[in-house]
From TrEMBL:
This is Alanine dehydrogenase. Residues 149-297 form the Alanine dehydrogenase/pyridine nucleotide transhydrogenase NAD(H)-binding domain. The gene is ald. Residues 4-137 form the Alanine dehydrogenase/pyridine nucleotide transhydrogenase N-terminal domain. Coiled coil: none annotated. It is an enzyme of class 1 (oxidoreductase).
Length: 366
């Protein structure tokens, strides 16, 4: 199969859909890979690395789309890319269709096959192509939180791990899923005193069994949250209720109970945020302050660490890319149920119920 890897043109997106190692795996299997010139640059991969792995470098995005049957990307196509996608293309990328009617309609019109990373779903209901980005964001939330706790950027001026003779900071983590677990692990590693909350007892048991002694698990309730926010230095929001907006666990009135310079990082911002005062921010301007509380709520946190994020993402997408290349989309999706659940729009028809429902459009079974 002829596979194309275009450069990501969405603002500030430095990840790339395939690493040289992925190219090597595909060319080894007699597939042809076209990589757009400098597509890997933002993630630390050079044209020469791709050429050595067997890729052909093409100059423009138009060249890549024209040469390829399957396109491997990271972000959803933006308007400029809509007309490049044609009926002979299979596109495998994050789409997040439910949040864009324009993209949904453009992909229906293109008659391409659109397989979305975010709906590839394993038998146990987990989302294998979302987990790595949550791992990155969870770990990064502590790195960012630690930075914004510094006084010159309006934080409380406390070091997460303290020093001998001075107690460490207190970190409150809401949610003990992928984001919360990774956040708690990083904070604990730096020596902070960590409280992690969830309503899922299985998640709390796992935390309790596997974390070091400076991590305490506690059932999530308004009463318990109010108790801890008074002296927490850093609060991480990592809750998710599948298919729904995040519950507002920290309300505006609670900010007044926090100490000035407390930092709150809402990783769940992409689901509406789990703090009432959250609004999406960017890597250019990641924070804002309300009632002396520093808010960090960047919606695409992994974008700031493209080297790690690209590798983490492509590690999990590559096995599916190989299946699609070897078998073609129809057979690959038929033979592999998790991949089949990734089918969102096929040849002009919406085959994923929630997307059709989001825009009151027609749905057809895949
Ligand atoms: N900002 C970013 O760049 C970025 C990156 C990756 C993920 N995310 C987002 O982070 C959020 C968390 O993702 P995840 O992969 O950890 O999800 P997850 O499903 O693994 O974990 C969510 C946890 O929240 C818990 N929860 C639900 N209601 C709760 C409550 N009232 N109190 C405490 N815990 C509660 C659930 O039981 C679950 O354990 C999602 O919204 C995801 O989209 C954002």
């Amino acid at each position: 199969m002829k596979i194309g890897v275009p450069i990501e043109i969405k603002n500030n997106e430095n990840r790339v859909g395939m690493t040289p190692s992925g190219v090597f795996e595909l060319t080894k299997r007699n597939h042809t890979v076209f990589v757009q010139k400098d597509a890997g640059f933002g993630s630390g991969f050079f044209n020469q690395d791709y050429i050595k792995a067997g890729a052909t470098i093409l100059d423009t995005i138009e060249d890549v789309y024209a040469a390829a049957e399957m396109i491997i990307k990271v972000k959803e196509p933006i308007e400029k890319e809509y007309t490049l996608i044609k009926s002979h293309h299979t596109v495998f990328t994050y789409f997040h269709f439910a949040s864009s009617e324009a993209l949904t309609k453009a992909m229906i019109k293109s008659k391409a096959v659109c397989i979305a990373y975010e709906t590839v779903e394993a038998e146990d209901g987990s989302l294998p192509l979302l987990i790595p980005m949550s791992e990155v964001a969870g770990r990064m939330s502590i790195q960012q939180g630690a930075k914004y706790l510094e006084k010159p950027i309006k934080g409380r001026g406390i070091l997460l791990g303290g020093v001998p003779g001075v107690p460490p900071a207190k970190v409150l983590v809401l949610g003990a899923g992928v984001v919360g677990y990774q956040a708690a692990k990083m904070a604990a590693g730096l020596g902070a005193y960590v409280i992690i909350m969830d309503i899922n007892m299985k998640a709390l048991r796992y935390v309790s069994d596997s974390m070091p002694n400076n991590v305490i698990s506690e059932f999530s309730s308004e009463y318990n949250i109010r108790k801890h926010i008074k002296d927490a230095d850093l609060i991480i929001g990592g809750v998710l209720i599948k298919g729904a907006k995040a519950p507002k666990l920290i309300t505006k009135d609670m900010l007044k109970e926090m100490r000035p310079g407390t930092v709150i990082v809402d990783v769940a911002v992409d689901q509406g945020g789990c703090f009432e005062t959250t609004r999406p921010t960017t890597h250019q301007e990641p924070t804002y302050i309300i009632d002396d509380v520093v808010h960090y709520s960047v919606a695409n946190m992994p974008g700031a660490v493209p080297y790690t994020s690209t590798m983490a993402l492509t590690n999990v997408t590559l096995p599916y890319v190989i299946k699609l290349a070897n078998e073609g989309w129809e057979k690959a999706c038929e033979n592999n149920a998790p991949l089949g659940r990734g089918l969102n729009i096929v040849k002009g028809k919406i085959v994923y119920k929630e997307i059709a429902e989001a825009f009151d459009l027609e749905f057809e079974m895949a």
